Amino acid sequence: MLAYQLTEWNKWPSLREVDAPVAGPGEVVVAVAASGICHSDLHVMSGPPRRWDLPFTLGHETTGWVSELGQGVRGLSVGDPVAIYGCWGCGTCRNCTTTAENMCITKHESAPAGGGLGYNGGMAELMLVPDPRWLVPALGLDLVQAAPLLDAALTPYHAIMRALPLLRPGSRTVLYGAGGLGHLAIQILRALTATEIVVVDRAQSKLDHARELGVNETYLFEDVDSLVSSIGRRSVDVVFDTVGSDDTVLVSSRVVRPGGHICLIGRAGSLEVAFRKVTAEISVISTFWGTRNELAEVLDLARHGALTAAVEQFALADIAAAYERLEHGEMRGRGVMVPGLG
Q: Which positions fall inside the Enoyl reductase (ER) domain (predicted)?
């Protein structure tokens, strides 16, 4: 079968002919319906070499149908629609046993994160899942539309749930970035809270999309001082930064109110947090993905029509061109690879 694999660090992946996976004891093979195209993949391609075995297949936002069950697997049937949870932890530590494998205690930070991030992922026709606990039921969902939800919706959902006590009626929230993660974060905020939503982006087309989704205010990011003036100093309860740059972090530190909350979702710039260096009583956190239970909740939101990804479909043969478009900021919403397309 064909698979889009990273074979060397700091080089673009390539389509390669590989052996189709076979389910061993306790394993499941999934026939891929779709796999999301994520910025994280670009960081893996161009970032420093990692302690991951090469080659491996990209694709960590993958949906599909159970194709083969290994010996001993219970509770699943061939043909079941599933979403593959992307964080593969140890399964036994205190966090993993509560489905928070994104915060696995025993797994070293340099170890592979999961399918598509160090282990073979979903940019192929078939994907091997080593443990059925990573399969979340996806009955009643369009599996192509659902694929981006596994990261691009789960990540902001996890961040929003951590800040939920501050997102009361009358609160004001700033969201940096209205692209792949941002357009889904807007929908989650609207579904779960009554906060006023302020969106900042460098692309007017993405701000126009944010307006279509019902946000209260939009601002084009041109420079730090004018943006702070437009939003207002100490006028914001919560900031979600899906961009992660020194400029966005600097603006956040100036617009958040005392007692407010800054959540760094993107690959964040630096912020010196010290007494009298930042606004009093603020909390600054980083987040990583989300829990398996939260993924089930995200899929429920989609099932009930509260969450819809803006999706552009690509055939497996066109996946390299799709990543180039993503790299140049030319993709609205989320790109998705569909094996049978074209």
A: 14-337
285 or 291, higher pLDDT: 291
Residue with tokens 């389910």: 23
Q: Which amino acid, one-letter code, is at 300?
A: D
> Six-digit token pair at 221?
């990011």
Q: What is the pLDDT of residue 275?
A: 61
pLDDT in tens, 228-242: 999 999 999 999 998
Amino acid at 105: I
Q: Residue 19 has what DSSP assignment?
A: P
Residue at 227: amino acid letter: L
Q: Give the integer Cα–Cα distance in Å for 155 and 288.
A: 7
Helix orientation angle between 182-192 and 204-212, rounded to the nearest 10 degrees: 20
Ranges of H-type helices in 21-170: 39-46, 143-146, 154-163
pLDDT tens-digit profile of 101-120?
999 999 877 788 899 999 99
Domains in the chain with CATH codes? 2-148+291-296+308-337 (3.90.180.10), 154-286 (3.40.50.720)
- Round to whole Å and give the CA distance between 338 and 342: 9
Show the tokens assigned to 42: 């670009």
Query: What angle do helix axes 39-46 and 319-327 make, rounded to 10 degrees?
Result: 90
CA 320, CA 103: separation in Å to the nearest integer?
A: 31
Higher pLDDT, 332 or 92: 92
Q: Which residues, 6+ apart, have CB-to-CB distance to 252 below 8 Å? A: 174, 176, 239, 241, 262, 271
Which tens digit of pLDDT belongs to each residue from 311-323?
Answer: 999 999 999 999 9
Amino acid at 103: M
Contact 141, 304 (CB under 8 A): no
At 63 the three-state DSSP class reads: strand
Check residue 20 and report its DSSP letter: P
Mean pLDDT computed over 171-176: 97
